[in-house]
Amino acid sequence: MKRILLALLCLTPLLKAQAQFPYVRFGLEGQAGYTSGDQVPFWMRSNQFGSVPLSGASASLIGSARVDYDTSKTKLVDWGASLQVRGNAGKGSNLTLIEGYGKLRIGIFQLQGGRIKEVMGLSDTLLTSGNYAISGNALGIPKVQISIPEYYPIPFLGRFVAFKGNFAHGWVGKTPVQYGDTNMTTTQFHQKSLYVRLGKPHSKLKLYGGFNHQVFFGDEKNVWSEKGHAWKPFDLSAWDTYQRVILGRVWNHSKIGNHMGSIDVGADYRFNSVDVLLYHQFFYEVGGLAHLSNITDGLTGLSLRNKREKTSNFHWNKLLIEFLFTRNQGGESWSKITPSGDEDYYNNYLYAKGWSYYGAGLGTPFITPKTLSRDGLPQFPSDYFINNRVVMVHLGAELGLGSWKVLTKLSYSRNYGTFGTSPNGHTTGAIHTPAIYGIFPKLNQFSGYAEATRKIGLNTELGIVGAWDQGKLLNNSGGLTVRVAKYF
Predict the structure, then answer these.
(1) What is the DSSP letter of 230?
(2) Cys-Cys link to 305, which of 196, 211, 275, 295 (CB 3.0-4.6 A)?
């Protein structure tokens, strides 16, 4: 508890700034909850940016302070900052920096550095099951980035074409590896994105398209040193290495680092009473999408936002249905043969914990690491994510019931393990590696979530959260949390 109080003292400078800057916001939230078993239910821990309670009976204290841009004035240069700290106490205790960054805006550009709560990809950010590349399931990787965070309509094209994007460099830290000449490597993070919107800002119809690209890389000279191996020693300069990381160019028959991303398309239409958003994310990792071998995989969503005014005690604000399919991966017997073989989403031959940060998957939480699945399920020894072949339907809703705002998520999935635990086995080109470690059975899983919040005083909010899991992939569990939040 002392550590929690000390961390909250870090908010003092921003509290003092509140008297000078009216756009400073401060929050203090207390939570008390209980979860059955030794595992926090799926939707209490997924896509929470690492802000997760402890299992069993626990109490949490969350402090936050945020300096936003001054929207009352048009400024060429402005600044902002955010800090959020969470302390948990129960069976054990922990203290986590959930967010901490500073930002500087110059015109349409923004320079930002620190740990940021953000997602990457085209989706309904409130109700989505999770983007493929970065879903907010894990803590943010500390990074420095320059971006155009909002769509900028190009004046000389009649404001019909707009774009946004980012370019970032981050630091993952020490990462275990399972190949090469070392057991641990100092890993860095590269990220970039570019999205284009067709349609004027107030047009009824808008079309969207773009991509995002993430890479784990670094310490290659230690990983690929010359010790009598069949591969050649790493002989690239730091600048040449970085260029190949950014451009995805090959060195010694393989890309440098672990590459990950999605190509997204979407459209929205503004009807008189409802806004409709339709989107799809195509996944890429080791090269299958370039050959269209995994073109059937992806995340598809349809989101509806109600623009009618509330006229009764019941009102729906937003509805979402999503469909996630990751079962193909270019590894089926009928799939097109590619040099890289099946995609094996989120697993990596070099990085022992694949596409994760502090043990949590960075992308969709429906691709399951072995740490969160039931004991005894078949697994390929080198795989950290033992279930990445998933067929899932997800429903989300934001509703109004009297003075309560209700948010629900209901997800049902069928899970097929990996190709390493399938009858086909893993593939590399035309080579098949037999599934000698067991065949993963088809496992059904349901996860539900409901959150109700209401105001109980000036800038004070009461919330009740319930979540439950039922199925054969995860341990069955349930949880209930009551929270009270005060905002200034």
Answers:
(1) S
(2) 275
Q: Are 406 and 452 in contact (CB under 8 A)?
A: yes
Q: Provide the sign of the torsion angle of the four alpha carbons 453, 268, 119, 166, taken in this order.
A: negative
Residues 22 and 132 in one domain: no
Report pLDDT for 339.
84
Q: Are strands 360-361 and 368-369 parallel, antiparallel or unpaired?
A: unpaired
Q: How many other CB atoms are found less than 10 A from the CB of residue 298?
A: 22
Q: Is residue 344, in this structure, part of any structural domain at all? A: yes
| Nearest Cα to Cα of residue 223 among 183, 173, 250, 255 | 183
Number of CB atoms found within 10 A of residue 49's CB: 22
Task: Report the C-alpha dihedral over residues 172, 374, 411, 454, rounded to 10 degrees.
Answer: -70
Is pLDDT above 80 for 8? no
Cα-based distances in Å from 332 to 161, 286, 361:
40, 16, 25
Q: Which residues form the domain of 7?
A: 1-107+457-464+477-488
470 within some domain: no
**Mean pLDDT value across residues 47-55:** 96
Separation CA 24–CA 435 (nearest Å): 57
